[in-house]
Amino acid sequence: MKLTIGQVAAYVGVTIRAVRHYHQRGLLTEPDRDASGYRRYDASAVVDLIKIKTLAEAGVPLGRISELLQAEPVDFADAVGQIDKAIDLRISELAEQKRRIAGLVAGDTLFLPPKIVDLLDGLRAAGVSERTIRMERDGWIVLAAGYPDEAGDAAHAKLKALDEPEFRQIYLAYDEAADWDPADPRLEQIADLIMAFASSYDPGPDANPPPPADDPAVLALMAGATEDQPPSWLKIDELCRTRVDGAAH
Fold it and tell me: CA neighbours within 13 Å on the CB side: how many for 166?
C-alpha cells in the first residue's frame, strides 16, 4: 500500500509543506501521480523522509543532507564529524552573543573596562547625576577604545581620589553647575576649589600617567565631545587654564 503526501507527512511527523520543500531541494524524489491524480509514496520514500527529518533535526544544513544520504559509512562519519565541529563553533558564537546581550542589560560593562565601570559606580554612590555620568562615560569610551589599559589606570586613580572629601565636593559642585549661566560668579569658586585640590593632592608614587594627550584621533574625538558640554563647564575649564597660565608667569 502506498501513502498520499498527507499520510506520509503525518506518519513521519513533518508538514506537507516540508515534504514539498524537500522535493524542491532535490532531497526527496517526487513520485509520479497515479490514475486518480494523487502522488503515492512507497516504503523507500518513507525511509528517505525519516532520514532527511532526522538529519535536519540534528542541525545538518539541508545543502549537506543529499551528500550524506549518498555517502559511504566512512565518508558519512567524517562528514558528520565536520558538521559537529561547525555546530560547536556556532554554539560558541551564540554564547558570545549571549554574553554581549547580557552586557547590554548590564549597561556600561559592555563598552568599558572594569576599572572605568567602578569609577562610574563610585560617582553614582557619591551622588553625581546620571546626566554628568553619561557625559563622562562617553569620554571614557573614546579613551578606552584606543588605550584600554591606560584609561583603566587613569579611572582607577580618579576613583581613589573620590575618597577625598574635597574631590567629592568638586564633583558635586561641577555637576550642579551644569545648568548655571557661564557668567555666574560661583563658577570662579569652583575653579578655585579645583586648583586648590590639584595643588595639594598627592596621587602617590604608583600613579600612572593618563592616556596619551597627543594622539590626533583622541584629540579630535574629545574635542567633538566637548561641544556637547554645558557652557558653564567650558567656562570652568577656561577659568582653570587662566589660573594655570597666571601661575606659570
Answer: 13
